[in-house]
Amino acid sequence: MKPEHQDLVLQACGASSLCVGAKIQTLWSGYGEIVRLQLQGSDWPSVVLKHVKFPEEAEHPGGWNTDCSHTRKVRSYQVETHWYQNFSTNQSCRTPACLAARSYGDEMLIVLEDLDVAGYDQRRTSVKDREIKACLSWLAHFHALFLGVEPEGLWPVGTYWHLETRPDELEAMGHPELKAAAGDIDKILNECRFKAIVHGDAKLANFCFSEGGRDVAAVDFQYVGGGCGMKDVVYFLGSCMEEKQCEKRVPGLLDYYFSELKQSVKKDVDFAALETEWREMFVYAWTDFHRFLLGWHPGHWKINRYSKQLTEEVLRKLKL
Which residue numbers delimit the CHK kinase-like domain (predicted)? Predict the structure, then answer.
């Protein structure tokens, strides 16, 4: 660990010394790593360091090593740093505290609270009803907290699959009708009346659970930005349920999300109008992500009958 990086951590945490612990994960396309640091002489027994180092040549698992891809990733880490330094949430949509963030040329460091120590030490690869609802509750409180808030310094339009940032994938997709309609779908989502700040990458893997699974915290804010809350909801549901589960369970889970959202929004919000609009946006948000998948990874398991049905529904609506 470089001396200036170590000094940043020690100073930010009031620690006398540190020990580099286990690597938690490598960042996408080899853009660095996330490691746990053990501290001595600090109120924080450990912290998590997100160490971004822009590679000379990226290694994308899908082969998308383009200038556009690199520029998007660089911007994503700048956005995440800005998010942690300038925005805060509450216990109902828990995120790790940011203790320090700094750039060093082609490297960026973000020092974060260790959520394992805070009681969110469980990760899930499959979930039961309780955990799904905990995540939907987190999203509802997050969207309510940032409803009407301008995404200053963040992505103007959040999510990592936003059409404007994915020209390569659009060009590659093989569904001519959806390809032609992509701009209209994007426009409908962007012009909705009720906008919030969206997490932008709200997959199951980015939620950390308490031992009982009732409480969650979220991480990874590289694609946080403005938009309709349904984008987060559809992406989360698609990340943890297969097509038959979606067909059976999505209506009830949407009802739960909106019940949580209703309890969380400010009293002056016209909630009936908000719910009506966002329910209408559900199929557009799902189809928007389906559009991305078709170009990025045509064989992906999420390209299923349920997604295709919703896409056909949207395409029919656009013809009316």
Answer: 110-267
